[in-house]
Amino acid sequence: MTNLTIENIVAHAKIADSIDITKLAENDQDFKYNPNEFSGLTLKLDEPKTAVLLLPNGKAICTGAKKLEDVETAIKIVTNKIKRAGVKVKTKPKVETTNITVSLDLKKELHLASISKGLMLENVNYEPEEFPGLIYKMDDLGAILLLFSSGKIVCTGASTMEDTSKAIELMKEKLSSLGAL
Questions:
Q1: d(Cα 85, Cα 29) in Å, to the nearest integer?
Q2: Nearest to 20 by CA among 95, 82, 94
Q3: Which of 81, 123, 151, 181 has the most CB within a 10 Å radius?
């Protein structure tokens, strides 16, 4: 689907059996460490523009990527960085996508109250006094869609682009059948 914009990809990889967070923080000032707030390290990268969290159990969590290739690059940069600091790292860590957030502009205003009724409140949360959008859960795909009256849709929660695209297409079909598109 060409009109989807990837807003954020969250992925993780087990890059080491364990990481001495305190020692690594002392030896490399690029890592941000505040044990009172978070038990891991944070490294913000400019290229690709991402943040990587390192946990004591050897897990790295990458967030902020706009392309799947950027996740791989960010994990590789962090792995090489901690390897140079003396941490024994896994040679080819398996990177797993946890969440992909995309947005789409239908370029058409949506009447959310009507849509909410048309979807028969099944998997729908629409309380405009609390949140300005309609929340629709697609449990089978692990996706949550946020629909806004402006015609914008945000899809989050799915772990593959295939499931994300499928969720958007299913929603567009539902909106068409309701006469909203």
A1: 12
A2: 82
A3: 81
166 and 110 within one domain: yes
Residue 18 tokens, joined? 């364990």
Residue-wise pLDDT for 15-52, tens only, equals: 999 999 998 998 888 899 998 998 899 999 999 999 99
Q: How far is CA 15 from CA 35, 55, 60, 132, in A?
A: 21, 10, 7, 40
For residues 8-35, one letter each, b for 16 or more C-beta atoms within 10 angstroms of the residue's C-beta and e for the rest, the string is: ebbbbbebbeebebeebbeeeeebebee
C-alpha 153/C-alpha 5 separation (Å) is 10
Residue-wise pLDDT for 160-181, tens only, equals 999 999 999 999 999 999 888 7
Sign of CA dihedral 45, 20, 15, 89: positive
Beta partners for residue 154, in sequence order:
103, 146
Structural domain ending residue among the three candidates 97, 125, 140: 97
Q: Which amino acid is located at 128 in the chain?
A: P
Domain boundary among 70, 97, 124: 97
Which pTM does this prediction carry? 0.87
In the chain, the number of structural domains is 2
Domain that holds residue 119: 106-177
